[in-house]
Specification:
This protein is mostly beta strands. The protein folds into 2 domains: 33 residues, no CATH class; 56 residues, no CATH class. The chain has no helices and 9 strands. The strands form 3 sheets. Strands 4-5-6-7 form a 4-stranded antiparallel β-sheet, with no helix packed on it. The protein has a 3-stranded antiparallel β-sheet with strand order 1-2-3, with no helix packed on it. Strands 8-9 form a two-stranded antiparallel sheet. A hairpin with an 8-residue loop joins strand 1 and strand 2. The model has no long low-confidence stretch (mean pLDDT 85).
């Protein structure tokens, strides 16, 4: 199983793997403080990462064989939906 936990730092969450009962927690991905959220694939591996890069900008990164790569930077006021990015009201 996969879980997010703020045990290491209450300001942001890291990703951990656990057994079925929630025990044997092992750090999978350490959040250095910039990651706002992850999007997981069906096999529960992180595929997208939303990183805060400054007050008015979020960076989307995609996991490739070579590691995390920048996909797009999104300015504040834009919403990410399944149909794409839309300017907020």
């Amino acid at each position: 199983m996969l879980s997010a936990s703020q045990d290491r730092n209450p300001a942001f969450a890291d990703l951990y793997t656990t057994d079925q009962q929630g025990g044997n927690k092992t750090l999978m991905i350490k959040n250095e403080g910039q990651t706002l959220r992850w999007v997981l694939a069906k096999n529960l591996t992180p595929q997208l990462r939303f990183n805060w890069i400054k007050a008015d900008m979020t960076r989307l990164l995609v996991m490739r064989d070579s590691g995390w790569q920048r996909l797009i930077d999104v300015a504040a006021g834009w919403r990410c939906q399944t149909s794409g990015f839309h300017k907020g009201e």
